[in-house]
Amino acid sequence: MEFPTALVLNAIIAGLLLGGFYAAVSVGISISFGMLDVVNIAHPAFIILGSYIAYIVHERMGVDPIAVSIVLSPLFFALGMVIYRVYYLCFERRGQESLRGLAFFFGILFITEVVLLLIFGVDYRLIETSYTSTTLRLGVVDFPLRLVVPFAVSMAMVIGVQVFLSRTFFGRAVLAVAQDQLALRLMAINPVRVKEYAFALSIATAGVAGAFLIVIQPVQPSIGREYIGLVFAVCVLGGMGSLWGTLLGALILGLAESFTSTFFGPSWAPAVSFGTLLLALAFKPSGLLGR
Prior knowledge:
With 291 residues, this protein is mainly alpha-helical.
């Protein structure tokens, strides 16, 4: 039996491109959950919200959805600040952030989904641009621009966030806030304000990732539930609070899903993220690059 070289190579390329997108949708949860210890289960809701905002602007004005998401990211940043402030005042300040705070984010998830259902219905929406129907071929390997463009922008976003958090004073404060808030207060730094801005940054990345999603695949309001397990699996697999680990975990998960879809069928692919999450928790709780 001849080895399916072309099939394997295309599965690898598709997995890496998909993994880049997974890194974009997961970097926000790595900040909120991995660094701030805020279990934002509603993170996928903001991704879907970003998808629909990009869809509306593209349909009415013809602007590229990824450009729309980048321009409107300050609005998502402001939304993140408001949500964290409510979360802090109602739950974290009172020491009730564990179970009641989780219910708060579940509420945001379902309210966002219901509002989008009432406005857009259950129909799937997809954006077509000048590059989404183009596929570049290099030998036997295909490079669909529908995946290549989001991958390239995803890499730029993840690396940019990593450089920002590692090279700036604010970034170092974010890394320190989950370890020793008292030390930050002694340095005249308000840890609540640091967490507020960091959480807002995580929501801004989710809004941008939403544009990638609707470029890659059709979207409808309840599709966000499929990404709950995925984003937490990437975060845990890569290592809590490690953005390089998030990128590595996302690429591994993308490759695993691509090979599963290619050789066993697409219906098995959704189980990969949950299976990976369980295996990571069982055998490597600190993650691949966890501290």
